[in-house]
Amino acid sequence: MPYWLKGYGNLGYILKDEKIIAETKLWLNKVFDSQRANGYFGPAQTEEDLKRNKVTSQDLWPNMLILWTMQSYYEYSNDNRVIPFMTKYFKWQLTVPDEKLLKIYWENSRGGDNLYSIYWLYNRTGEKWLLHLATKIHKNTANWQQKDKLPNWHNVNVAQCFREPATYYMQSKDSSSLKATYDNFYLIRNLYGQVPGGMFGSDENSRKGYDDPRQAVETCGMVEQMASDEILMSITADPMWADNCENVAFNTYPAAVMPDFKALRYLTAPNMVVSDSKNHHPGIDNSGPFLMMNPFSSRCCQHNHAQGWPYYSEYLWMATPDNGIAAVMYNSSEVSLKVGNKNNVVTLKQSTNYPFEENIRIEVNTTNNVNFPLYLRIPNWCKMAKVKINGIIQSTTFEAGSYAKVERTWKQGDLVELTLPMELKKDTWDKNKNSVSINYGPLTFSLKIEESYKEMASKESAIGDSKWQPNADQTKWKSYEIYPTSMWNYGLILNNQSLESQFEIVKKPFPADNFPFTQASVPILIKAKGKIIPEWILDKNGLCDILPISPVSVSTKEQNIELIPMGAARLRISAFPVVK
């Protein structure tokens, strides 16, 4: 329930959906009611419960999630119960002996979430004892500051917890803590992330020797990586975190769910040519039907993924220390904020179909002329960004992976036009058999594989530990296997000429329903040429076999193939062999 509420409430606040907000309050009121005199809240655990579970202390991981729901709720409502509630709970945490604090696996790995909540409260109350508690929590959390090593290799833990040292850096100001988070990010990607899509191949846990693009990541891991990127963006202002967040959000996450969001699969990989109910272990780390779309299975991801798009929406814009505003990530949105020295309220309205187009318009609405800086992130992939103010091109050259700063006295109706020219780009994964992926701007492209959907009984095909309401109508919550009905084992034909001469970009109208992540509705595709690699087939575990080493010599004929955005390909080849 805490996993679900964490994203569900934010969804309601963003959409101003009174039904969702009312249901969120229903749960939160019960949480408020559950707080004990000593400050602890949540279900009681007796000594007998602890013995039965073979633990010596309360598991605080669910409480960490609820704290995040409280923070979001307070930012929406200013409910005066939240601050005393969190204060009382943290005073209780301060009394817990170190030998009984954060000793259980999940809470020990994820203590950084607890730390973040302490700082959230400190920023509102300024009570110094909270910083003592923060140090205590940091000391008892798993050590995410080891050289060339992680405390564990669970994919969600890595995506969620690698940021803990950078979180503590806000208090310690120790640059080695900040560096550790960057080191963690690059370590997992160097070992298991030589793949497109911004993530890494762990299935549930990263394993030596299992680093092919067919290795997957949990849907939980995707949205936690996005959240980490967003938080690190706010801590560091480094545009690379926004680049990675967009990479995951546009290329990896959308294909993990059905277009109506009523079913998802536990695991999704860059190279994934079947999505069925079979057991693919040991090819993947998990034993069971973990590749199929099922609304009743894999409960962690069913609930946790709800944070993905709401959190992303909340971090599109960020305030800056000089009383300005930064457009950190781009999407149609509207933000009202206080800017300038006199706390003038302005509204900025952004209109775009990014990442499927390169033009972004920002309209300024203000009752008074006001001076403030506007920062526009220039993605690392963009070489020749252009900015117009009221139709006049700004002469400054804007560096990729930086910000365009526009400071002026803004007036009602001012129009900012940002153009981020998109170009074809090839990534070569030399540590993964010299495979390649093809990008256009922030989008990575996959082979278009014709998909056949086979409906299955949802409850019967769910994994063993799934739970659901007994009266749930599975006819409204359908499960699917997805099979390919076209060939998938293509290698790309590439030469030394320009990519523009080898690929043809085809643009189509943006879909009327504003959901571009399906094969039928993608507003852009790429025409390419490839050859079948006959020896590259399904392996004994039912997965596409590991990549052959490129370049691959084949005698098959050249064929025209289509590539579509990776996020719209629920079956896909995204890391391609290259054929001679």
Q: Which helices and strands appear, and what pairs or packs with what?
A:
Blueprint: H1 2-15, H2 18-34, H3 47-52, H4 61-77, H5 82-95, H6 105-109, H7 111-125, H8 129-140, H9 155-161, H10 164-172, H11 175-192, E1 217-218, H12 219-236, H13 239-252, E2 267-268, E3 271-272, H14 299-304, H15 308-314, E4 317-319, E5 325-327, E6 333-339, E7 344-351, E8 359-366, E9 370-378, E10 386-389, E11 392-393, E12 402-410, E13 415-419, E14 424-429, E15 435-440, E16 443-447, E17 451-456, E18 479-484, E19 490-493, H16 499-502, E20 504-507, E21 524-532, E22 559-565, E23 572-573, E24 578-579
Parallel strand pairs: 5-9, 19-24
Antiparallel strand pairs: 1-2, 3-23, 4-5, 6-7, 7-8, 8-13, 9-12, 10-11, 10-13, 14-15, 15-16, 16-22, 17-18, 19-21, 20-21, 21-22
Helix pairs in contact: 1-2, 1-4, 1-15, 4-7, 5-7, 5-8, 7-8, 7-10, 8-10, 9-12, 10-11, 12-13, 12-15
